[in-house]
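thought: fold this chain, then report.
action: predict
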Amino acid sequence: MFSLHLQSMKRLIHFGPSLPALGQTPYAPGTPDWVQANPARIERALARALARPSGGWYVVGASREIGETPTKHRILGRNLVAWRGVANQPMVAPAACPHMGANLADGRVCDGKIVCPWHGLALGEARHGTWAPFPAFDDGVLTWAQLSADEVLTPKPFITERPTRFLDAVIRVDAVCEPSDVIRNRLDPWHGAHYHPHSFAQLRVISESDDDIVVRVSYRVAGPFCSEVDARFHCPDPRTIAMTILEGEGKGSVVETHATPIDETHTAVIEATLATSDRPGFGLAVSASNLLRPLIQKRARRLWIEDAAYAERMYEIRQEKVAKKTRISLGGAKRAGSSHKG
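observation:
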């Protein structure tokens, strides 16, 4: 059943399936968003997310971008190379050739092995001295690598539930921040209609806990035309936050935001959109994925250019606090030293 109604106050035209009536919500209508976006609550939810296991897995990039041509990546301060090995399986390994350190990302792939561009050493699944590939996993949309040995390892990543049929698109935006700043951004949905008025017209939190947040949000499709949905945000691992549409247009669609640490001060935001629909014509949309994918990527990238600035600001504020504590500590030490000399 579809509804069409005009909200005269803000001149928004909503279309799509009717949503269930709202019951009791955490905040009374009219409660300012700055009151709802309680920093202490956001930090509690973040701490809960960061405490989740990851199995040592990190998102490398979009699966379709890893093929027979080697690609270079940097994760956790390590230079890596990725390619498709035997039986089209993803391979992720140190980028430095164990022979004399040549960059394997400049090499080529032959019979599933990466061949060093300097002296022709072919490397594959087998260890060669200290060089060895990392466990890799392709979930059909993203490629992961198991790079951490500091926690309990798992056979595969913790992947959120996805639709069975979807149109997918993946973007990457790099930011000067830590992965926690990316997750913190998504745990603050209240900024959406204020910070992204071109994409969100209205947003209301209808339930929340330290494990998830459910919002009723109006997505702008074109001008005043909006699609209203109920969406849930939750973290399946400490570096991922997923938004799943529970009710409304595109029910079952998922947007996964992954925060992969490049080094100590930079993070790659790798976001995968898996759009689905029960409309009869959705099969045609999937068939035209190569035409529609750039449009989805353009919209997602616009949001993340802005949200990267949000994450970078949170990181900047934290660094300023650390610098201030350091200045106070050094000032106290100097005063103590002067007193001692006196």
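thought: worth noting. The chain has two domains: 6-16+27-51+160-318, 59-146.
final: tokens above.
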